[in-house]
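Hi all, posting the design record for the shared folder.

TITLE: backbone redesign
STEP: 1 of 1
STRUCTURE INPUT:
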């Protein structure tokens, strides 16, 4: 699930997301950085958030990883993209990051 906001924040996405309980990870295989928030003391389930940032906008792309890849070499995993839990979490993030808009 995605939402877009104008890129006029007074903090970086990483600073804002840290306030929301997320931390940065880097996947050596895909060579992509993203943010996760664990829901338990285990590795899964966890919210997984990708940020795409341009000079004009920031796109937040969130899903809920339910479990790891089941088969070696497989990239797909058990995830929720449009569940109520994902919608609620995305709304929470949107409210938090809206407080960091810069006044132009």
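Okay, here is what came back for every position:
SEQUENCE:
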């Amino acid at each position: 699930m995605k939402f877009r906001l104008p890129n006029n924040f007074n903090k970086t996405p990483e600073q804002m997301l840290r306030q929301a309980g997320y931390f940065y990870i880097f996947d050596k295989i895909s060579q992509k950085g993203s943010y996760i928030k664990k829901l338990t003391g285990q590795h899964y389930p966890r919210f997984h958030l990708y940020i795409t940032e341009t000079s004009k906008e920031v796109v937040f792309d969130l899903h809920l990883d339910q479990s790891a890849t089941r088969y070696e070499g497989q990239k797909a995993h058990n995830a929720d993209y449009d569940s109520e839990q994902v919608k609620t979490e995305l709304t929470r993030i949107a409210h938090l990051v809206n407080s960091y808009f810069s006044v132009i």
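COMMENT: Residues 8 and 47 are 25 Å apart (CA to CA).
Let me know if anyone wants the other runs.
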